[in-house]
Amino acid sequence: MCKLIEDSLTQDTTNEAVSYNELQKIYLDHLNQLSPQRKLVFEMSRHENLTYHQIATNLNLSVKTVESHVSAALHFLRKK
Question: How far are the Cα atoms of 38, 48, 62, 64, 76 from residue 68, in angstroms, in the given order?
Answer without folding.
Answer: 9, 18, 10, 6, 12
